[in-house]
Amino acid sequence: MDIIVKTGALANFDCEILIVGHFEDNQMPEGAAHLIDEKCNGLISELIEQRDFEGKLYSSSVVYTRGLLRGRRIIIAGLGKKKEFNLEKLRGVFSKACQKIRDLNITRLAASLDFGKSEFSIRETAQAAVEGAMLGLYQFTPYKTLENDKKGEISEFTIVEDRPSLLEDVKNGAKTAEIISRAVYCARDLVSTPPNDMTPTILAGRAGDVAKEGNLKFEALDETVMKKLGMNALLGVARGSAEEARLIVLEYNGGKKDDKPVVLVGKGITFDSGGISIKPSEKMDEMKSDMSGGAAVVGTIKAAAELKIPLNVVGIIPATENLPGGRAYKPGDILKSMSGITIEIKNTDAEGRLILADALTFAGRYKPAAIIDLATLTGACVVALGDYITGMLGTDSNLKEEIRSASDATGETVWELPLWHEYDDLIKSDVADIQNTGGRAGGTITAALLLKRFTGDYPWVHLDIAGPALLSKDKPYIPKGASGVGVRLLVQFLMDRSRAFNANP
Asked: Which of helix, strand or coil describes residue 19?
């Protein structure tokens, strides 16, 4: 879908359908809706007066202009209650409106962002509207062969702005949204691809393609190199698969040469059977999503490069399959990690923390300003927080506050869980330094405590995305399936940090 910004009046714009908004608690249309209403002899206000349209959040109504406007139809989008309105709801409003337009087989639309008085800047409004539209219209169809199984595509979305002084801000907001949304598409595509076509080697190749497009430094360490580095925790997980593991490294250098980088580490289990401690067969197909953290890292660095964020960012993705087999690692095994810490295996389905252990140790080589890891790590986090919230644990209060702020801005909700050191005893081993699981109680916390052993003294935050990475039903602008969670959160974090860093050099 092409995103276009034009100056002019929406009432004079020639298009198949025009989008305007209306608040539930307004008796009459405001902003662009008011101007359109005047031009079409009160069609909108009549609809409101008759209570055929009340403006409830995400509702919509289509009005035919009958030649009174150049635009042939108007879709009035419900904005909900004005006091409760925010940018997250605006994303959902534009998603739902655009999905309805797609269902009408309309391919071109135009919209105004003038809803009357607003507490949000026009740049924020433009970014939220475009993100909602693009993310809500996402489809994954490479494997669909029947045309009637595919939904239509909207080819053109035009924002019409009649205030010339705001035009550049609208363009900048829309462009930022387009770059970030395409990065989310990238992450969703990686997760949605079936595991036979998304092996560690293929994931490395896709990351390499992103690197070429963004002029990034790229490396994919093979098993021979990882063995020399002592990455026996990662390689232990990989032993059961015929597919070779890879350690994928992406480097974006947008800051000064000597600036310490932010290192993003993403779990990249391209398929997780549980290994010898095999999972139940029901819903095992969803375990292609166990590389969602790695996908988010790829998408984030793609966006950072296109947005030219003035920071240095490194992405590290340990990628492997976790399968049973004659060579597979077993409960009772002891693996010596890259750091030298030995890990007793109690459950081979607690593999994510093993591959992250070596990746986090490797991250220390960059002497980072901060380390953030993302992983579909524990079912315990889903039990604690449900399907839509990311669990956050970490060692640095300032870094956690930065993540919270980015969460508030993007609607990708995080909730902090404690790193209680009283729980350290749960991962102590009788025969090794630690064991790879502390049991069911406090599972998200004990998993994070294990990871902490490998982060050194660097500021570190762990994001457990097990809940929101793959959705079983639609949300307003996230269709069922791979969500791409983490990309918008981390891009916002990087943009915020770059502004703070450059304001206080």
From this structure: strand
Q: Determine the pLDDT at residue 446.
A: 98
Alpha carbon distances (Å) from 223 to 55, 209, 429: 58, 21, 28
The H or E element that residue 223 is part of is helix 223-229
Domains of the chain in sequence order: 2-161 (3.40.220.10), 181-500 (3.40.630.10)
pLDDT of residue 503: 64
Q: Which amino acid is at 364?
A: G
- Would you say 353 and 438 are in contact if contact means Cβ atoms under 8 Å apart? no
Distance CA 498, CA 505 (A): 10
- Sort residue 45 into left (φ over 0), alpha (ψ -120 to 50) or beta: alpha
pLDDT of 505 > 70? The answer is: no
- Catalytic amino acids? 279, 353
Structure tokens at 300: 């984030």
Closest-CA residue to 135 (of 107, 75, 94, 176): 94
- Phi, then psi, of 42 in degrees rounded to 5: 80, 25
**124 touches 173 (CB < 8 A):** yes
Q: Hey, what amino acid is at 116?
A: G
Tell me, yes or no, if the pTM score tops 0.70: yes
